[in-house]
């Protein structure tokens, strides 16, 4: 199904490092790329480097004085709480501007590849820093690389871009930066703001005439409910919107093992979502697909396997769930992390995307969340909210 696929990578992307003990440990992307290499996934893609986003590129979404504040922190590592740097979530560190600009540059490289036609799909697993706002860092995110890529595409002449965010946390930064722009459809499926940071992402947050779509799922939601919500919301909206380019954020912190959230997806449920988004890219945006990483704090059991599946899916050569993770990678995990690695690429589940075609159960919390979203935005898109 895929024609040409680029993976944007530079070892320097691991410099985005808030220090020992911080949940967003760069080893997660190091182990992802090592696993993808071990399984031959990267052999089916073109791996390309990247350069840091320029100030002008960052200023497509960020305030100039904020960029200057990040640079000052970067020079000496001293906090700037007004810029959101120096908190427990976003510790200040020397070099933070350069590390953050490189991640934004990697997502820009992915966007350029797809826009210019040198690749049909492009992946930046180090990206997906979706909480950063125009003038402040937030939620482990300094520069909002998906938003920078989207704004760059709009500046090149793109008129309709869809952004689908499957991170367990609401994609609040991307939503805020394009909230009043009908050219950008943002769809976020996340744990309810009642129980999880950032406390936003209610169905009533609808943007410019339904351009912001929020599916707030109850804590404890697993594969079946999550994939039902996905199927009931995402495909009909993308088919109606017909974007020129699909941008997706693949935070894998929706997994049952993730220590920071309360959804209960399996690796297999996440892989099923990647398959569905790949198909939708070909169906609705002519195959033009930019995928990023995102959250994910189970550093060994979840993140490397999830994002290796993502790269493999984008390459058009998905990995069989029963595939062994490989002896060299297993040895690397023991050496780097001192823990037992997962032995195969599956959690042993076989979930499928569904929808509400079998009926709506008002006693089911997931179905109520689905209907709240459909009632809030479907009429704006000319869609019937009723199943």
UniProtKB/TrEMBL annotation:
<dbReference type="InterPro" id="IPR003085">
    <property type="entry name" value="AcuC"/>
</dbReference>
<dbReference type="GO" id="GO:0045150">
    <property type="term" value="P:acetoin catabolic process"/>
</dbReference>
<feature type="domain" description="Histone deacetylase">
    <location>
        <begin position="22"/>
        <end position="312"/>
    </location>
</feature>
<protein>
    <recommendedName>
        <fullName>Acetoin utilization protein AcuC</fullName>
    </recommendedName>
</protein>
<dbReference type="InterPro" id="IPR023801">
    <property type="entry name" value="His_deacetylse_dom"/>
</dbReference>
<dbReference type="GO" id="GO:0040029">
    <property type="term" value="P:epigenetic regulation of gene expression"/>
</dbReference>
<dbReference type="InterPro" id="IPR023696">
    <property type="entry name" value="Ureohydrolase_dom_sf"/>
</dbReference>
<dbReference type="InterPro" id="IPR000286">
    <property type="entry name" value="HDACs"/>
</dbReference>
<dbReference type="InterPro" id="IPR037138">
    <property type="entry name" value="His_deacetylse_dom_sf"/>
</dbReference>
<keyword id="KW-0006">Acetoin catabolism</keyword>
<comment type="pathway">
    <text>Ketone degradation; acetoin degradation.</text>
</comment>
<comment type="similarity">
    <text>Belongs to the histone deacetylase family.</text>
</comment>
<dbReference type="Pfam" id="PF00850">
    <property type="entry name" value="Hist_deacetyl"/>
</dbReference>
<dbReference type="GO" id="GO:0004407">
    <property type="term" value="F:histone deacetylase activity"/>
</dbReference>
């Amino acid at each position: 199904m895929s024609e040409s696929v680029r993976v944007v990578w530079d070892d320097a992307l691991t410099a985005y490092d808030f220090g020992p003990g911080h949940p967003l440990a760069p080893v997660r992307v190091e182990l992802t790329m090592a696993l993808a290499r071990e399984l031959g996934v990267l052999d089916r893609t073109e791996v390309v480097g990247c350069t840091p986003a320029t100030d002008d590129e960052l200023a497509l979404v960020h305030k100039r004085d904020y960029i200057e504040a990040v640079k000052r922190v970067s020079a000496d590592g001293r906090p700037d709480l007004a810029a959101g740097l120096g908190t427990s979530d976003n510790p200040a560190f020397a070099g933070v501007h350069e590390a953050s600009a490189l991640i934004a540059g990697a997502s820009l490289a992915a966007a350029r590849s797809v826009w210019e036609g040198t690749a049909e799909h492009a992946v930046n697993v180090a990206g997906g820093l979706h909480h950063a706002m125009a003038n402040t860092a937030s939620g482990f995110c300094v520069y909002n690389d998906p938003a920078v890529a989207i704004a760059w595409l709009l500046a090149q002449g793109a008129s309709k871009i869809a952004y689908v965010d499957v991170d367990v946390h609401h994609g609040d930064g991307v939503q805020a930066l394009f909230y009043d722009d009908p050219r950008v459809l943002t769809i976020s499926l996340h744990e309810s703001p009642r129980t999880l940071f950032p406390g936003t992402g209610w169905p009533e947050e609808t943007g410019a005439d339904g351009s912001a779509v929020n599916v707030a799922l109850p804590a404890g939601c697993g594969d079946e409910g999550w994939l039902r919500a996905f199927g009931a919301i995402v495909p009909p909206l993308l088919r109606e919107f017909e974007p020129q380019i699909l941008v997706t954020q693949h935070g894998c912190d929706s997994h049952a093992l993730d220590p920071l959230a309360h959804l209960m997806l399996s690796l297999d449920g996440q892989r099923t979502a990647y398959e569905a988004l790949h198909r939708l890219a070909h169906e609705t945006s002519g195959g033009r697909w930019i995928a990023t990483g995102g959250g994910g704090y189970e550093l060994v059991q979840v993140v490397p396997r999830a994002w290796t599946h993502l790269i493999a899916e984008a390459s058009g050569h998905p990995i069989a769930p029963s595939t062994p993770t490989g002896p060299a990678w297993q040895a690397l995990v023991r050496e780097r992390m001192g823990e037992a690695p997962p032995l195969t690429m599956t959690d042993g589940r076989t979930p499928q995307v569904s929808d509400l075609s079998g009926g709506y159960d008002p006693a089911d919390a997931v179905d109520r969340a689905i209907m709240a979203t459909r009632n809030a935005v479907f009429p704006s898109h000319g869609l019937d909210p009723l199943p």
